Q: What sequence folds into this?
C-alpha cells in the first residue's frame, strides 16, 4: 500500500479497501470467483472453498484467492456463493463453523433460504442476505471477472435485529466490488427479480425454443431483434430450475399475466379489420414503449440515447480505429453493440450517444470516411 492509502489495481490507483479480511468464499463458480477476484484486486486476503476440488483449484489458479487450509485464521466475513438449492445448508454450516464471522449469501432468491433457516431455528444474528444483480450467460470460474459487479445494484436484505456492524461488513464488500447498494425486504426482492430477471429468462428460453424446428433458411434471416430477445436463453437450465422453483409464486403470477396479454394480442390479430382491433394492438405495443422507457440506462438513469449505426469492414483493427476516432472527436460513447452481416465481410457498430451530439457525430464520422446508416 502506498503512503496515501491507495493501491494500484487494474484501473490504476484505488482507495484502500473498506473490507476487513480475511474473507472466505464458499462456492467457486462465476459469482464466488468474481467476488474473490474483485477483493483480491483491492488487496483483501481471500480463501476459497468448494465441494469440487477441481473447481476450487481452478478458481485459485485464476487468482480468485487461495484454497483454505485447516490452520487459517477464522474469517471476518463469509460469502456463500452456492446454488440456490443448497444455500440454506451452506449458510447454516458457515454460521456454525465460523461463529464470530458475518455471513452473507449472493443467491438470486432471498425468501426461501431465509424461511428454511428460520424453520431450522438457526441463530441468524450474524447473517445478512444479499444479492448482486450481475451475472453472465455462462457460469464457472473461467468466466469470472473482477469488475462483474461494477455499477450493478447490490440488494441487501436486513431485518430489525441485524447488528449495525454485521450490516456494515456486507455493505463494505459490496462497495469494494463496485456495487450500488439497495435495501429491500426478501419479499420485495423476490417479486422484483421475478419481474426483471426470472420472467425474461423464461420468455427468452421459450422464444428460442421456437427456433429448434425452423429451417436453416429461416434462421439465416435472423437479425439484431432475435439476438436481443434470445441472448439469455443460453443460460444454464439446471441453475434456472433451482431459481424458478425457489421463486415460483411470483413467477407464475407474472407468467399468468403475460399469458393473458398474449391471448389478447392473438385474439386481436385473428381479425385485424374488426372495429377497435387496431387500437387494441396499438395500445398493447404502446404499453411496451412505455415499459422499455422505464428501464434504467447508463449509471442508473432512465435517460434515452440516440443510436448511430456505422458500417465497418470485418478486418482487424477497424473497430479500434473507430473507437479512437470517436475519442478524438470528443464523442462520449454511452453503449456499443456489434452485429455481423451473414455472408458479407462487413459489420455494423451500433453506438449510443446523447441526442444532442448525434447529428454532429454523424457529420464528423462521414467527413472522416465512415459510412453510417
A:
Amino acid at each position: 500500500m502506498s503512503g496515501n492509502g491507495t493501491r494500484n489495481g487494474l484501473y490504476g490507483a484505488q482507495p484502500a479497501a473498506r473490507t476487513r479480511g480475511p474473507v472466505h468464499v464458499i462456492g467457486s463458480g462465476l459469482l464466488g470467483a468474481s467476488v474473490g477476484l474483485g477483493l483480491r484486486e483491492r488487496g483483501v486476503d481471500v480463501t476459497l472453498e468448494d465441494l469440487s476440488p477441481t473447481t476450487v483449484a481452478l478458481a485459485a489458479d485464476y487468482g480468485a484467492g487461495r484454497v483454505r487450509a485447516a490452520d487459517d485464521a477464522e474469517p471476518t466475513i463469509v460469502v456463500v456463493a452456492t446454488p440456490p438449492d443448497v444455500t440454506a445448508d451452506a449458510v447454516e454450516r458457515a454460521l456454525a463453523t465460523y461463529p464470530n464471522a458475518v455471513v452473507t449469501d449472493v443467491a438470486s432468491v432471498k425468501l426461501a433460504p431465509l424461511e428454511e433457516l428460520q424453520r431450522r431455528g438457526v441463530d441468524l444474528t450474524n447473517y445478512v442476505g444479499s444479492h448482486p444483480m450481475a451475472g453472465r450467460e455462462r457460469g464457472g470460474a473461467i468466466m469470472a471477472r473482477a469488475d462483474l459487479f461494477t455499477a450493478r445494484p447490490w440488494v441487501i436484505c436486513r431485518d430489525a435485529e441485524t447488528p449495525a456492524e454485521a450490516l456494515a461488513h456486507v455493505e463494505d464488500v459490496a462497495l469494494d466490488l463496485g456495487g450500488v447498494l439497495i435495501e429491500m425486504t426478501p419479499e420485495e426482492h423476490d417479486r422484483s427479480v421475478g419481474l426483471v430477471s426470472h420472467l425474461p429468462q423464461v420468455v427468452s428460453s421459450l422464444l428460442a425454443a421456437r427456433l429448434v424446428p425452423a429451417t436453416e433458411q429461416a434462421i439465416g434471416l435472423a437479425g439484431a431483434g432475435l439476438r436481443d430477445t434470445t441472448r439469455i436463453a443460453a443460460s444454464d437450465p439446471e441453475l434456472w430450475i433451482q431459481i424458478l422453483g425457489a421463486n415460483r409464486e411470483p413467477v407464475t403470477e407474472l407468467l399468468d399475466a403475460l399469458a393473458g396479454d398474449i391471448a389478447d394480442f392473438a385474439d386481436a390479430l385473428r381479425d385485424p379489420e374488426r372495429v377497435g382491433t387496431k387500437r387494441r394492438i396499438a395500445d398493447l405495443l404502446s404499453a411496451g414503449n412505455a415499459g422499455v422507457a422505464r428501464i434504467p440506462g447508463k449509471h442508473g438513469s432512465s435517460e434515452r440515447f440516440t443510436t448511430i449505426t456505422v458500417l465497418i469492414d470485418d478486418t482487424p483493427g477497424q473497430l479500434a480505429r473507430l473507437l479512437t476516432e470517436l475519442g478524438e472527436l470528443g464523442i462520449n460513447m454511452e453503449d456499443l453493440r456489434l452485429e455481423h452481416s451473414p455472408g458479407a465481410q462487413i459489420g455494423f457498430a451500433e453506438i449510443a450517444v446523447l441526442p444532442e451530439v448525434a447529428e454532429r457525430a454523424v457529420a464528423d464520422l462521414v467527413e472522416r470516411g465512415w459510412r453510417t446508416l
